[in-house]
């Protein structure tokens, strides 16, 4: 595709718009402490700030205690080797450095200042970097050309007491070594035997080759090339780094070097590898064309020249993205948390092993959600994890911190299990609040039946359940469809071992199921023929019947279809005695904390009695999360000021709660803002019974509750757990079609809770 291609032009414009709007750039700085009152001001600034300064003056290490230093990394460049764009200068490198800072933050919660410096003298640049030590917990050097980068890095490492890491060297080398480890497994070759050709003898090239030697490649099996051709012993003026790899050889060109090569490592520039060169490689060759943004050869061309090649690039739009983004956020996380004084070889090797191992482990739930439709099973097109793999942070950071502790460069001893759990919490915002639920679920052995068992998200949930929960799963669906989807998604779950199957088309229990269904509904107009037809075609009815028969403890449905359609069958089959649907409760996890909203789905316009029942049920559920309920009954009316339906129902519910003498805080009726703002509420109704912010918002119609839930999710970036079907004794839950795999796993954990702790 040429640069003038309309699609290319549109893509370029989209990238520019991304950078320009709604405000220029990709970063901002946010305060982490309140600055709302004069008291805040006097603590954050003069005079209070002086106390923090004096403590640090006495003990420099206290900078990690009283300032942001411990989580602050400098991303520093002089713009002399920016991606494969070359020496475009410090100013033009800023989008890349801002981008690295965003990746540090998003993937590992690390704050960065991007620092672009007009300084091409490596010693002066190093001096400048060293002087920045008081500000930062670590330094990431970026896109500084070779050989200058070696000088800058060496001086900084010698003089600084914090980790200094040159991303283009070591980040790239770590990820390339991990990908090579896995590619060799697939190709059934060994580091010790392979012939390597490296095109590019700069920062990335030199570091990658050094790492390959650590992995077992023989130095004499490496041919290095730079812009002047093969690096050989007869060349003059080689830098010390290149001289280390100079070979005594008559080969001069890439074409010469490629004869019989097993691994091509391209870290040079765009389009430098031809199909003819690829054809000269050994069988089952490995081609890493890592130049950014345009690789040495495009994967489709390489594939055409060598159909059995294993191919990787640095780009996200092709399989096998070998890019240092898989390394730098996570290696820094581990180093910072262990208080490491440097990033040493042991930490790098731990990182290689952790990354390579992740690609070989079954893909996780979130990963499947992030990369829907892609095959994520270890093999030629999945040699290396994806950057959005949520396992990267806990797995790599823990491995790196452990290596730092074991090799004696850590200044902190971490409890690694607790550390891993903390990182997992950071990745899954729902993990902390869901932890008691998962723990309760792990104590039980409940059987959970999934009505839409063929749905890919359900299969991924079952995979995650096999890793994170102890209960068992039953899938309603056609075995051949389920099997082929498991294979396509690269999952490791197996029928009979990780789940049981109910085939709606031909299950030997079919007769039992339709007769049970008929027995329940014979006096509600359901004939045997109708019962047979429903139990052949309606997976929700099948799942509910299984629960009713005691063959499963709970069911989950709703990934497709309407909530009330599913609820109808659940009510028909499972509502008996005390059990009847009381409402749907959604937990929305916000940056400020959790907020529960009800009734989002069940009683469209509840009566006062129904609303009071929903409040009592919601309070019970909220307590299961270890949270004391503070319920606000929300309406367009506020403390009796409107004679509307909503106001009357809300006031009726409050009166019923008063009569029932419930043991939790509640108040109503009020607007949502008064529920969340105690000062406003106090002005409107001094002495009202609710203390602080409400954490349960109860609405008088599903329209209002649904709107509140959706707004919280979309505008406030809330993460939803639920909806939780209340009143059915944890025997059924109905999710909504937009549910993610993590959302399903959360519901499965709730469904897995024993009824005693379910309350
Ligand atoms: N995928 C990834 O994660 C990463 C990819 N890269 C990519 O690798 C490339 C190099 O980056 P980096 O090492 O930092 O840059 P450097 O400037 O340090 O090195 C570039 C190297 O490429 C060589 N080179 C340039 N043009 C040619 C040519 N026509 N033929 C052969 N060799 C050539 C240079 O040769 P000479 O020494 O003679 O000047 C030099 O050895 C870039 O495209 C970059 O985007 C880099 C880091 C990470
Ligand atoms: C990925 C990266 O750091 C580079 O291409 O320079
Ligand atoms: Mg770079």
TrEMBL record:
CDD domains, per database record: NAD_bind_2_malic_enz
Gene Ontology BP, a term: malate metabolic process
Swiss-Prot/TrEMBL cofactor(s): Mg(2+); Mn(2+)
Annotated EC: 1.1.1.40
Positions annotated to bind a divalent metal cation: 142-143, 168, 292
Record domain Malic enzyme N-terminal: where: 24-157
Keyword line: Membrane, Metal-binding, Multifunctional enzyme, NADP, Oxidoreductase, Transmembrane, Transmembrane helix
SMART domains: malic (SM01274), Malic_M (SM00919)
Domain of life where this protein originates: Bacteria
Binding sites annotated in the UniProt record for NADP(+): 82-89
MF (Gene Ontology): acyltransferase activity; malate dehydrogenase (decarboxylating) (NADP+) activity; metal ion binding; NAD binding
Membrane spanning stretches: 196-218
UniProt xrefs under InterPro entries: Aminoacid_DH-like_N_sf (IPR046346), Malate_Decarboxylase (IPR051674), Malic_N_dom (IPR012301), Malic_N_dom_sf (IPR037062), Malic_NAD-bd (IPR012302), Malic_NAD-bd_bact_type (IPR045213), ME_PTA (IPR012188), NAD(P)-bd_dom_sf (IPR036291)
Pfam families, alphabetized: malic, Malic_M, PTA_PTB
Residue span(s) of domain Malic enzyme NAD-binding: 169-405
SUPFAM superfamilies in the cross-refs: Aminoacid dehydrogenase-like, N-terminal domain (SSF53223), Isocitrate/Isopropylmalate dehydrogenase-like (SSF53659), NAD(P)-binding Rossmann-fold domains (SSF51735)
Catalytic-site annotation from UniProt: 100
Family statement: In the N-terminal section; belongs to the malic enzymes family. In the C-terminal section; belongs to the phosphate acetyltransferase and butyryltransferase family.
Protein name as it appears in the record: NADP-dependent malic enzyme
Highest classification ranks of the organism: Bacteria, Pseudomonadati, Pseudomonadota, Alphaproteobacteria, Rhodobacterales
């Amino acid at each position: 595709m040429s640069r003038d291609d309309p699609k290319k032009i549109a893509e370029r414009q989209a990238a520019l718009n991304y950078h320009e709007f709604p405000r220029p750039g990709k970063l901002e700085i946010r305060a982490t402490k309140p600055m709302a009152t004069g008291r805040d001001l006097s603590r954050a600034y003069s005079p209070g700030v002086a106390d923090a300064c004096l403590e640090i003056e006495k003990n420099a290490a206290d900078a990690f205690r009283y300032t942001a230093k411990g989580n602050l990394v400098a991303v520093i460049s002089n713009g002399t080797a920016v991606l494969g764009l070359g020496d475009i200068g410090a100013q033009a490198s800023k989008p890349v450095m801002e981008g690295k800072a965003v990746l540090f933050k998003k993937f590992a919660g690390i704050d960065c200042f991007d620092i672009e410096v007009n300084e091409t003298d490596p010693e002066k640049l190093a001096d400048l970097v060293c002087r920045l030590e008081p500000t930062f917990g670590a330094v990431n050097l970026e896109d500084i050309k070779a050989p200058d980068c070696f000088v800058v890095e060496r001086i900084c490492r010698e003089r600084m007491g914090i980790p200094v890491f040159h991303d283009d060297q070591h980040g790239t080398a770590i990820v390339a070594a991990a990908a090579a480890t896995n590619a060799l497994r697939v190709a059934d070759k060994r580091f010790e035997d392979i012939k390597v050709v490296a095109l590019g003898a700069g920062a990335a090239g030199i570091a990658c080759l050094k790492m390959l030697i650590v992995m077992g490649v023989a130095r004499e099996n490496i041919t290095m090339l730079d812009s002047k051709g093969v690096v050989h012993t007869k060349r003059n003026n080689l830098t010390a780094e290149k001289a280390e790899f100079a070979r005594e050889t008559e080969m001069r060109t890439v074409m010469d070097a490629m004869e019989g090569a097993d691994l091509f490592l391209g870290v040079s520039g765009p389009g430098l590898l031809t199909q003819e060169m690829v054809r000269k490689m050994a069988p089952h060759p490995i081609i890493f064309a890592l130049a950014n943004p345009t690789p040495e050869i495009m994967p489709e061309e390489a594939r055409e020249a060598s159909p059995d090649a294993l191919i990787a690039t640095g780009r996200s739009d092709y399989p096998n993205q070998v890019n240092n983004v898989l390394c730098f956020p996570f290696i820094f996380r581990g180093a910072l948390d262990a208080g490491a004084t440097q990033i040493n070889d042991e930490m790098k090797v731990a990182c290689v092993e952790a990354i390579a191992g992740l690609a070989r482990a079954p893909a996780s739930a979130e990963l499947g959600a992030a990369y829907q439709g892609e095959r994520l099973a270890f093999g030629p097109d999945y040699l290396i994890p994806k950057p959005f793999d949520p396992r990267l942070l806990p797995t790599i950071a823990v491995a790196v911190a452990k290596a730092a502790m074991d090799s004696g460069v850590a200044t902190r001893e971490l409890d690694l299990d607790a550390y891993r759990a903390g990182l997992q919490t950071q990745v899954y915002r729902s993990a902390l609040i869901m932890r008691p639920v998962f723990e309760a679920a792990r104590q039980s052995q409940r059987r959970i039946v999934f009505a839409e068992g063929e749905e890919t998200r359900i299969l991924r949930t079952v995979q995650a359940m096999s890793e994170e929960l102890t209960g068992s799963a039953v899938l309603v669906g056609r075995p051949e469809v389920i099997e082929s989807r498991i294979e396509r998604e690269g999952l490791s779950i197996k029928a009979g071992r990780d789940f049981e199957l109910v085939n709606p088309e031909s299950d030997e229990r079919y007769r039992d199921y339709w007769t049970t269904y008929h027995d329940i509904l014979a006096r509600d107009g359901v004939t045997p023929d109708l019962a047979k037809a429903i139990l052949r075609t309606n997976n929700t009815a099948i799942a509910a019947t299984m629960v009713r028969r005691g063959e499963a403890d709970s069911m989950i449905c709703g990934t497709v279809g309407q909530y009330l359609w599913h609820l109808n069958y659940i009510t028909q089959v499972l509502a008996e005695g005390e059990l009847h649907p009381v409402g749907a409760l959604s937990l929305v996890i916000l940056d400020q904390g959790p907020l529960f909203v009800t009734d989002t789905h069940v009683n469209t316009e509840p009566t006062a009695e129904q609303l009071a029942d929903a409040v009592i049920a919601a309070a019970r559920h909220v307590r299961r999360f270890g949270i004391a309920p503070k319920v606000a009954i929300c309406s367009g009316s506020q403390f009796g000021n409107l004679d509307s339906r909503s106001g009357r129902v809300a006031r009726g519910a409050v009166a019923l709660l008063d009569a029932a003498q419930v043991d939790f805080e509640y108040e109503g009726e009020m607007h949502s803002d008064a529920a969340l703002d105690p000062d406003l509420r106090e002005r409107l109704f001094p002495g009202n019974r609710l203390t602080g912010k409400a954490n349960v918002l109860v609405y008088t119609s599903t329209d209002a509750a649904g709107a509140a839930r959706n707004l919280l999710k979309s505008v406030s970036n809330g993460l939803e757990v639920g909806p939780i079907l209340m009143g059915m004794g944890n025997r059924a839950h109905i999710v909504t079609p937009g549910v993610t795999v993590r959302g399903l796993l959360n519901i499965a954990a709730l469904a897995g809770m024993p009824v005693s702790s379910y309350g």
